[in-house]
Specification:
It is found in: Cell membrane. One of its GO terms (cellular component) is plasma membrane. Cell surface proteoglycan. By secondary structure, this protein is mostly helical. The protein has one domain. The protein has 14 helices and no strands. The longest helix is centred in the N-terminal third of the chain and has 59 residues. The relative contact order is 0.16.
């Protein structure tokens, strides 16, 4: 009653043993593909973690610089500016991780929150009545009167260019893991599991437990079993090219490190621009939002303090070189895995599974 290991000679197998063999080859095939995938997956997961750590390190660095700008140059509003600064960098971090948000909305939301503070603490420091309605009016007016000049738009442009590649790379790495996981759990067809049993276990039914399959036979069986996985070859090669393109984009002119480390300077220039145009802004705001209550006495607006660049270059250089070396190491490894799916059958037939020398081997029907 054997279905797979039918042979002229007497046999020590039963139908139940054949079923056990089918379960065994399914398990073994999954394990051997997992073993092949392990190194590749380990590298991708390791680099996802390494990239995220490098991004977080750069974001913290940029956030600290921006916070210290307010604490040193714009002390009257430093405490209230802390929350908008924190929100801005949280939004950027979420954007890199693939959240449904844009760099433009994050930056403009920050400048919307910043304008009421700049207006009431620096341009008109005598304002005492900063009601919710008045604050909201200032936020909305920011979009019409553009108090920060071209600096807010420039910041959007610079960050969008540099963060786009980081976001795409982050998503692409996650996609790579998804693809690898899917191939690990690809179901074996009934024909495939029968062919594997015939190749690996039918000799056992003749008492030939030490005989292994012939190389050519193994390759034919594996290629048939893994045809659907091998079809990924063209897309996998394209995927590696995309990763290469994205890592080059990150390292090229739209440098993430330069864009993030220059944020504090863009914000400083934007605030200086608003202060220099204070009288015109006040005239427009008074028409739109009305005149708020002022303290008694004639308070002059806060003096404009241009900020010299704080040299924290060492931290930035370390983060920069760390991210660059990770990019190079990662893309060199991934380029070596270009043929991963094309050569999967060959790799599974390598090693202990088959006879490599001139010894006798099993061809599916007999020992040759």
């Amino acid at each position: 009653d054997l279905q797979i290991c039918q042979h002229r000679a007497p046999t020590c197998c039963t139908k139940k043993m054949e079923e056990s063999y089918q379960a065994a080859v399914r398990r073994e095939r999954t394990q051997s593909i997992q073993a092949l995938n392990f190194e590749l997956k380990y590298m991708i997961v390791g680099h996802i973690t390494a990239f995220q750590e490098a991004f977080e390190s750069l974001l913290r660095f940029a956030e600290n610089r921006t916070s210290s700008l307010f604490e040193t140059a714009y002390r009257p509003m430093a405490k209230e500016a802390a929350e908008p600064v924190k929100e801005l960098f949280t939004d950027i971090s979420l954007y890199i991780l693939g959240a449904e948000t844009t760099v433009e909305s994050a930056v403009l939301r920050f400048f919307d929150s910043l304008f009421p503070l700049v207006y009431s603490r620096l341009i008109n420091p005598g304002i005492t009545d900063l009601s919710e309605d008045y604050t909201e009016c200032l936020r909305l007016t920011r979009q019409d009167i553009n108090p920060f000049g071209h600096y807010s738009k420039n910041m959007v442009t610079e960050l969008s260019k540099s963060l786009w590649a980081s976001r795409m790379l982050s998503q692409a790495l996650s996609l790579g893991i998804e693809v690898i996981n899917t191939t690990e759990h690809a179901a074996l067809t009934k024909e495939c599991s029968r062919a594997l049993v015939k190749m690996q276990y039918c000799p056992h039914c003749q008492g030939l437990t030490l005989i292994r399959p012939c190389v050519g036979y193994c390759l034919n069986v594996m290629r048939g079993c893994l045809a659907s996985v091998s079809e990924l070859d063209a897309q996998w090669r394209e995927y590696i090219s995309t990763l290469e393109y994205l890592t080059n984009e990150m390292a090229a002119s739209h440098d993430l490190e330069i864009a993030l480390s220059g944020m504090w300077n863009s914000i400083n220039e934007a605030i200086l621009h608003a202060q220099l145009n204070g009288p015109q802004l006040s005239a427009t705001v008074d028409k739109v939002c009305g005149q708020p209550r002022q303290q008694e006495g004639n308070l002059s607006s806060a003096s404009i303090v241009p900020v010299k660049e704080v040299t924290e270059a060492k931290t930035l250089v370390m983060a920069h070189s760390s991210l660059n070396s990770k990019r190079r190491e990662f893309i060199n490894y991934m380029k070596r895995s270009r043929t991963f799916y094309a050569s999967i059958a060959e790799r599974l037939c390598d090693g202990d599974l088959v006879m490599r020398d001139s010894s006798t081997c099993w061809n599916g029907e007999d020992v040759v």
